[in-house]
């Protein structure tokens, strides 16, 4: 029986190294702001840290050895990502940043050798960035409402349409684009295909860069609003089979949702740590915040929420390792996707509140956390859609009771029990009657 809550010593050593590396090198670097993210800054600050990660054998661990990764299972990735989730710079340092990690995964699975040479290896090496260009201004991420069209003209595709929230489009070299190629296909989920579009292709226009959250100037964000106008691509720009976008998306999004949840565990733990540090440090006229019962309640509720969520994430990771098939774990993946924004929002909000005015200022990370929690309820499918998935998967195991009263109606269950044990009940009546006492007579009558 394998049911264990311990980490093997060899991998624990790796986790201990990650913990120290995050604390001593990644987290201090993240406070330098944009100085880290320019091309010169990346060479000066990021590249040396990435090399240290590679030297430890911890680079791009979500990928197999044939792609330069470690091929770690999902449970190990979950334990790693709990550490990385504390800081937004960490995934880049460890070669698992979104959307590049998911885009690289589907190119590895479905790309031709030429596509892998041009896009996959530079992505894995961190030499280029990519964007996931799927959602649209009209219908969001619902693939059945997509308007962007790709029409075959000779041996070229001609693409027209608009995409919304194409993350990192402004920094990307390639756009992973979803476009309708077969609008009349009988199966609505076979109407859309995926294309690898060089960002500098004529006709590709970034209308503006949308920022997440309040504040900042319009146009200063990282979420691209992209227009495709008569964009011409060779036929072999198609990724995978024609009409297979939905199938490919499930491979990408299933893993992406799990990894988001893994990192959110780390973000929640960070918020809880800061909340507790504030509680034991801040003093009011009635004593420390930590000594006030309402504060204790908030800390207890946050710890319980986090532990339940963490265990659900780890169990889901274990199921993926067991089945090697995201489709067999759809319910569990959807469940952690539903739980993720609520747990994150609840803990981050409590942490902000406990810090008072400082907590809602831009001198603390909590408002960014709260905004991120709202993003988690939208990214990779809204919470409501995933709740429907959970419910449908749960209900598959049940069959209807078609009688007037349900099968679990207590009078019916009693009648069935009396029939099943009729012999024993008869013997019991005779035994009580033979004893002849008043109380025994009453018991015999009751039986």
From TrEMBL:
Residues 15-127 form the Acyl-CoA dehydrogenase/oxidase N-terminal domain. Residues 131-208 form the Acyl-CoA oxidase/dehydrogenase middle domain. Pfam families: Acyl-CoA_dh_1, Acyl-CoA_dh_M, Acyl-CoA_dh_N. Signal peptide: none annotated. InterPro entries: Acyl-CoA_dehydrogenase (IPR050741), Acyl-CoA_Oxase/DH_mid-dom (IPR006091), Acyl-CoA_Oxase/DH_mid-dom_sf (IPR046373), AcylCo_DH-like_C (IPR036250), AcylCo_DH/oxidase_C (IPR009075), AcylCoA_DH/ox_N (IPR013786), AcylCoA_DH/ox_N_sf (IPR037069), AcylCoA_DH/oxidase_NM_dom_sf (IPR009100). Its cofactor is FAD. It comes from the Bacteria. One of its GO terms (biological process) is fatty acid beta-oxidation using acyl-CoA dehydrogenase. This is Acyl-CoA dehydrogenase. It comes from Phenylobacterium hankyongense. The lineage of its organism: Bacteria, Pseudomonadati, Pseudomonadota, Alphaproteobacteria, Caulobacterales.
């Amino acid at each position: 029986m394998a049911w264990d809550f311990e980490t093997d010593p060899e991998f624990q050593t790796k986790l201990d190294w990650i913990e120290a590396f995050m604390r001593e090198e990644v987290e201090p670097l993240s406070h330098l702001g944009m100085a880290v993210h320019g091309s010169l800054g990346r060479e000066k600050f990021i590249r040396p840290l990435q090399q240290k990660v590679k030297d430890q054998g911890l680079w791009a661990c979500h990928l197999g050895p044939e792609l330069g990764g470690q091929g770690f299972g999902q449970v190990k990735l979950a334990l790693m990502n709990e550490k990385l989730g504390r800081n937004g710079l960490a995934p880049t340092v460890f070669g698992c940043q979104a959307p590049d990690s998911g885009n690289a995964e589907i190119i590895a699975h479905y790309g031709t050798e030429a596509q892998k040479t041009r896009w996959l290896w530079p992505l894995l090496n961190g030499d280029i960035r990519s964007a996931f260009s799927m959602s649209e201004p009209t219908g969001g991420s619902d693939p059945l409402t997509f308007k962007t069209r790709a029409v075959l003209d000779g041996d070229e595709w001609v693409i027209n349409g608009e995409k919304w929230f194409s993350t990192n489009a402004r920094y990307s070299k390639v756009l992973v684009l979803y476009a309708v190629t077969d609008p009349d296909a009988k199966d609505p989920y076979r109407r859309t295909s995926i294309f690898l579009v060089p960002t500098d292709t004529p006709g590709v226009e970034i209308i503006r860069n949308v920022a997440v959250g309040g504040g900042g100037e319009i146009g200063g964000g990282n979420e691209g609003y992209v227009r495709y106008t008569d964009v011409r691509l060779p036929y072999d720009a198609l990724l995978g089979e024609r009409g297979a976008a939905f199938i490919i998306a499930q491979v990408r999004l299933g893993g992406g949702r799990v990894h988001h949840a893994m990192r959110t565990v780390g973000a929640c733990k960070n918020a809880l740590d800061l909340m507790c540090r504030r509680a034991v440090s801040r003093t009011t006229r009635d004593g420390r915040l930590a000594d006030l019962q309402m504060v204790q309640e908030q800390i207890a509720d946050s710890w319980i929420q986090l532990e339940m969520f963490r265990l659900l994430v780890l169990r889901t990771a274990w199921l993926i390792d067991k089945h090697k098939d995201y489709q067999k774990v759809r319910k569990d993946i959807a469940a952690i996707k539903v739980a993720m924004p609520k747990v994150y929002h609840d803990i981050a909000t409590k942490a902000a509140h406990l810090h008072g005015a400082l907590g809602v200022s831009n001198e603390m990370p909590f408002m960014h956390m709260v905004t991120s929690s709202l993003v988690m309820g939208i990214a990779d499918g809204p919470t409501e859609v995933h709740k429907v998935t959970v419910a449908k998967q749960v209900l598959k195991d049940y069959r209807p009771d078609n009688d007037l009263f349900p099968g679990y109606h207590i009078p019916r269950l009693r009648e069935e029990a009396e029939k099943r044990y009729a012999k024993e009940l008869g013997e019991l009546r005779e035994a009580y009657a033979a004893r002849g006492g008043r109380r025994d007579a009453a018991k015999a009558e009751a039986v």
